[in-house]
Structures are given as structure tokens and as C-alpha cells.
Predict the structure of HECT-type E3 ubiquitin transferase.
Amino acid sequence: RKEFVDLYVNYMLNESVQKPFEDFKRGFSRGCPTKMWKKFLPGELQTVLEGHVNYDWHQLEKNVKYIRYQKSDQTIKNFWNVFHRLPEEKKKMFLAFLSGSDRIPATGLEYFVFYIADPGTEDPDTYHPFTNTCSLVLSLPR
């Protein structure tokens, strides 16, 4: 029985995934040569690939730049008031909505800048917030 379990575990965790893993490794190595990522410790490499999970939501608020808005506008005050009351998971969902990822880029939060823009619609009640994830712009109707 022990031999069967050992063989089965080896097959499931090693042999059955060997071909897909080799394909992935070959493709990954094309975009990120092994020499480049071997200089990182495992935790550092994970951060580079996945981003940070240490969130400072008040720092995120400080990093925002406004387009056709002022920080003192009531819409902006309301937005941040609601945002800071959200549970942690919803804040991460907002970050994913804004940037396409629920993690902070490896460069760190102090360099993560996004924009909140007034789309300038005539009737803002007929529009909903939307984002441009490439430019990190949240269009927030008044």
C-alpha cells in the first residue's frame, strides 16, 4: 500500500505535470531569462511577479491626482468616505477594478499613482464609474 501511495503521489505531483510545466518554463524563460531572475531571493521574486500585499489605503488616497476635480469637491470627499468604510476585500476589488490586479506593483505604493477624472457628462446620473486600467484613470461622474 505504501508503495502504491508513493507512486501515485509522485505521478500526481511530478510526472503528470512535467510536460505542461516544461512548456510553461520554456515560455517564461523567453520573456524573463533565467539569469535575470536567479538574482532574486524567492520572496523577492514573488513580489516582482505578484506585487505587494501590504496595503496602506491612506497612502493610496494621497497618491491620487485629480482631473477636473479638486480634493475638496464633495464627490471626492464622498468617494473617499465610502471607500475607507469598505471591508478590506472590497478595497482589493476596487484596486482590481482600477488596475487589473488586486495587488500593489512591485515598485511599491509610494510610486503607485492613479487619477480620478470627472468625465464631464451633462447628466451624471445616467453614467456609472468606469476605468481605463492601462492609464489608471477612474472616471467618476459627479
Q: What stands out?
A: The mean pLDDT is 91. The chain is about 50% helix and 10% strand. The chain has two domains: 1-39, 57-139. Strands lie at 65-67, 115-117, 130-132, 137-139.
